[in-house]
UniProtKB/TrEMBL annotation, chain A:
Name of this chain's protein: Branched-chain amino acid ABC transporter permease
Any one Gene Ontology cellular component term annotated for this protein: plasma membrane
Lineage: superkingdom: Bacteria
CDD domains given in the database record: TM_PBP1_LivM_like
Locations listed in the record: Cell membrane
Bilayer disposition of the protein: Multi-pass membrane protein
GO molecular function, one term: branched-chain amino acid transmembrane transporter activity
Chief location: membrane
Lineage, opening ranks: Bacteria, Pseudomonadati, Pseudomonadota, Alphaproteobacteria, Rhodobacterales
InterPro entries, A to Z: ABC_transp_permease, LivM-like
Transmembrane residue ranges: 23-40, 46-65, 77-97, 103-125, 137-160, 186-204, 235-254, 274-296, 308-334, 354-374, 395-415
From TrEMBL, chain B:
Coiled-coil stretches: none
Organism for this UniProt entry: Litorivita pollutaquae
ABC transporter domain span: 6-247
Name of the featured protein: ABC transporter ATP-binding protein
Molecular function terms from GO: ATP binding; ATP hydrolysis activity
UniProt key word Transport: yes
Transmembrane segments: none
Annotated region described as Disordered, given as residue ranges: 238-258
UniProtKB/TrEMBL annotation, chain C:
Compartment(s): Cell membrane
Example GO biological process: amino acid transport
Organism: Litorivita pollutaquae
Keyword Cell membrane found: yes
Membrane spanning residue stretches: 12-29, 59-82, 139-159, 188-211, 217-237, 249-270, 276-299
Protein known as: Branched-chain amino acid ABC transporter permease
One cellular component (GO) term of this entry: plasma membrane
PANTHER family tied to this protein: ABC TRANSPORTER ATP-BINDING PROTEIN, BRANCHED-CHAIN AMINO ACID TRANSPORT SYSTEM PERMEASE PROTEIN LIVH
A single MF term (Gene Ontology): transmembrane transporter activity
Pfam families: BPD_transp_2
Taxonomic classification: Bacteria, Pseudomonadati, Pseudomonadota, Alphaproteobacteria, Rhodobacterales
Membrane-protein topology: Multi-pass membrane protein
Key words, A-Z: Amino-acid transport, Cell membrane, Membrane, Transmembrane, Transmembrane helix, Transport
Amino acid sequence: MTDITQKYANLAPTTAQKFRQRVLPFLALAVVLAIIPMSGPSGTAYTLLNVMGINIVFALSYNMLLGRGGLLSFGHAVYFGLGGFAAVHAMDAIGSAESGFWANYPIFFLPVIGFAGGALAGAVIGWPSCKRAGTPFAMISLGIAELIAAAGLMFGSIFGGEEGVTGDRMVGHEVFGLSLGPTSEVYWFIAFWTFVGVAGMFAFTRTPLGKLSEATRDNPERVEFIGYNPTRVRYLVFIFAGAFAGLSGGMAAVNYEIFTPEALSLVPSGLVLLMAYIGGIRYFTGPILGAILLTYMQSMLSDFTEAWLLYLGLLFICIVMFAPGGLAGVLYGFTDALRAGKLGEVIGRWAGQAIGSALALFGMIILVEVAVHWSNGFGETFEPYGLHLTFGNPLTWVLIVVPVVAGIVILRRLANTEEGVIA
Amino acid sequence: MSENALSLKGLTKSFGPAKIIQGVDLDIKAGERHAIIGPNGAGKSTLFNLISGLYTPTSGSVKLRGEEIGGMAPFKINRKGLSRSFQVSNIFANMTVRENVRCGVLYSMGYGYSFLRNIGNLKEVSEKTAEILESVDLIDKANLPAVLLPYADQRTLEIAITIAGGADVILLDEPTAGMSHSETDRAVDLITKATEGKTLVIVEHDMGVVFNLADRISVLVYGEIIATGKPEEVRGDPKVREAYLGDEADGLDEGDAA
Amino acid sequence: METFVPSLLNGVIYGLLLFMLSSGLTLIFSMMGVLNFAHASFYMLGAYFAYTITQSTNFWFALILAPILAGLVGAGVEKWGLRKVHANGHVAELLFTFGLAYLIDEIVKIIWGRNAVNYRIPEALDFTIFRLYGSDYPAYRIFMLFVAISMLVALWFLLKKTRAGLIIQAALTHPHMVGHLGHNVPRIFMTVFGAGCALAGLAGVIGGNYLVTEPSMAVLMGPIVFVVVVVGGMGSLEGAFIASILLGLLQTLAISVDTTFGEIFGFLGLSGTSEVGSISIASLAPMIPFLMLVLILMIRPRGLMGDREF
């Protein structure tokens, strides 16, 4: 052992560190995925979990572009959708094949078809898209998304028109003894591919290409002077992002047994952007958190209130303005302080911020809910805890104005003292 | 070793009506340490940008070991064994020092755009990275994010990234700009050590550094080379003394003392 | 001819409407580097404000008041929102406006409902102005033409003949220099943002009753406005004007062409009943802007008249 390798040994993370940082989280993920069914979830819970798995993989694939590659795309659902359509068509091929390749291809491995479809779409569309980064990239992605969405409605034989293309997942060979009939069996399928997707995308961040993607995001000019073509780096990353989006599309194809051209449109593209950003694009775990939260909000909150999209928009704007690190950023800030033993110093401020935000949020919720009930025009009113809140009721305004003003005053004072400390 | 590492012929560059480089001829031998000096705005950085591929020459040729590289994309020139640093630190700020250097090492080790290898398991890449960090004395700060490094260390990291790919023609653009005296001395030692046996072209304002390091010096004024030669020849050249008025002419003498 | 001339006129009017919408965005984009995703939302707000104002007064009040309200909302958004995000870079700004577009959509749905509102053309303008090749031509379209041209003249006068216009022109081409001249840059930004939103609001007032005033109108119009700005080129109002008219004409003319691919490429053996053959030019009309967007960005990233790439 030379002197240098000795010194190097101190540089690289130790085996224990590697295990803790890179292996343990995946063991934990596998264990969590495996024990969830033991708690005996209901049918609706399984449905929700399955959607979460799909969205986790989709959001992570989006973050390969935005967070790791610095490429803002408004059309990522194109790859989700094209992968999904490839998988649905493959599903039909399996159902109708008597013999040959498709007759032997198990439904369980359909996400592989989605992966290939997404990669192919990424390879074709990425070619013109990746020549430029920044705003031009964002605009091209928007233009292409609109074009593909329009084409989706035009070519009925591929996309099935407005009704879409349907399939049947209970055909072909069973693997692992799963008929994929009930949602609880689909869960194992989703859990398996969620794990594969998450692990695959994490592994990608550890490859030379993954590292170069980050380097190109931070400083594309310098990358050129260490032998790399930034356009090529972006293009390859784009293909992988498309491929993993296609993988999640393949998962969705099996889960829903239907794909409509709607899946290609700007709406899911916007939603995946929100998932990744709200979760935190600078952290690998961010989009996972975002996908879980938004999927939950989408299915649960939309039962409670019609205004859930408004809450989502508010949440997103607050994150953009006040917490660009997303939920993961807030969480890591907390654990970092905890680990550094500085929790005592910051906890007061955080508690204040939490109280201020909660107060402002409380007032906003009252405002929104009263407004929503008023707007429905069925003579309904917002009646929490037996209160009868309408815009004509002075109590309503007290409940809106007082908490919002108090919350903002607290947050502003905290912001001012923080600046004072820095100055 | 009489072969020219770098050879410029009739090189010009215009931006609209402004001729920034107006006909530069320069031969730099393999293994030579060549300094390019000249007053502000003489076109030194533009010349570097032409050689390294950032700009396309308006006319003339740039040859690397006899092969024409003028107008080639920077990454292609880099792969042919020419590497440059920047006047303003141009590093990957969000990555650690070690990752910065490792990015510089990767291509030359044949891992180009690989997506099937775990970067942590590439033993020769890790060793080469460590070797370079050791040679520039940044090994103790290897795991710090680059953005947290003090200024002088960022300059050093800039050089480390430049030499990491193992290029044998190295272009350094004002490597000691903004450094204190002791930091400059350290940087000169480091540059000498790190470019041992390589061809070095350096743009520098600090005359002490120039006369210490360079085998030969070229003086660039208004986009033209007015003198090329050994340090003592250049210093005595009346045209050079005319171009450098006042303080900077004293700088030439200061180099004498050094 | 019967269809061509009215289509031409409609195309020009639609193009002018697009320009009214995109001129503000071009100003904002060129000076601040913000491609405002929510710009079309202010167009929608203009239409809804006008609707509410016409409920209690009349259209002429709305024509003045609604754009001012939209402009004030815009200025507020710049002052209390966008300015705070500015430090985090252009992507953060773009995302902020993206979220804002979401938010305005939802707020509009809550206040005015999910269905289209009955925002009508004023009675005073609801008549046939002349007959063109046998079909009636509504007066309101000529009124739109009139408003759009008035706005064009006013904008031209403001930019070329006033001091404020000179500053804005300087900021269009050299956004970083204006601050060095001692001008209050944040205030200029806020004013331009507000004025741009007011113009979008004006487009909403006169476009909302011509088209339909509904919560999806921003989503439908938004991407097309982007196309105009990108195709026209950064920093160029002339470019935005040409692109608007071009898009307006292309889209309206394409809609009036029922020819199918089968008929055009029949000589290549493409059957009129096949899937590709049965696609008509008219059905491709909504795709034209985006085709232009992608092609321009690939072939000529500066846009038609832009003086720099963005």
